[in-house]
Design goal:
With about 160 residues, the protein is mainly alpha-helical. The chain contains seven helices and two strands, in the order αααββαααα. The N terminus is likely disordered. A hairpin with a 2-residue loop joins strand 1 and strand 2. It has a single domain, classed as Sufe protein. Chain: A (Alpha-Beta Complex), CATH 3.90.1010. Helix content is about 45%, strand content about 10%. It has a two-stranded antiparallel ribbon.
Length: about 160
């Protein structure tokens, strides 16, 4: 299993406009959700899952310092979170960062599911998968609210792009 989230362009056919936008690893959002579920199932406990999620966050492309401003900040997050979206080639490209390690990992999971997808697919992919994968229950209430805020920001960007 490739943990670096590099992209097989023949699989997805999608190339991001440039870093820091994340390219999809799987062909569809549903395939990404299934792959994340399988990867999390490898671990016996939440400590292992947390470490894995933190490592995913460390592998995110560098987020431009110029974007760590209020215009890019996601409200409703306990940690500082910044996101940027761009419509290019009929696909919504996403970039994100946080000042907290676990939150950066959660951003990486969201971007893996949503970035590089057509806006209609993003809108059709309900962020309920976060609950189904057990991610929300394993987090503090504040972190759970924060990831919900990030998911709403992604959905809002897709709605504006559609």
């Amino acid at each position: 299993m490739d943990q670096t989230h590099t992209v097989d362009q023949t699989q997805t056919g999608a190339q991001p406009p440039a870093e820091p936008f994340v390219a999809p690893e799987e062909g569809t959002a549903a395939e990404a959700i299934a792959a994340i579920g399988e990867e999390l199932d490898i671990f016996d406990d939440w400590m292992g899952r947390y470490q894995y999620i933190i490592e995913l966050g460390r592998k995110l492309p560098a987020f431009p310092e110029a974007w760590t401003d209020d215009a890019h900040r996601v409200p409703g997050c306990q940690s500082r979170v910044w996101m940027e979206s761009r419509l290019d080639g009929g696909r919504l490209w996403l970039a994100g960062a946080s000042d907290a390690a676990i939150v950066s990992g959660l951003i990486a999971l969201l971007l893996r599911v949503y970035s590089g997808r057509p806006p209609v697919e993003v809108l059709a992919t309900d962020p309920v998968f976060l609950k189904q994968l057990g991610l929300l229950e394993a987090l503090s209430t504040n972190r759970g609210n924060g990831i919900a805020s990030m998911a709403r920001a992604v959905q809002r960007a897709a709605g504006e792009a559609a």
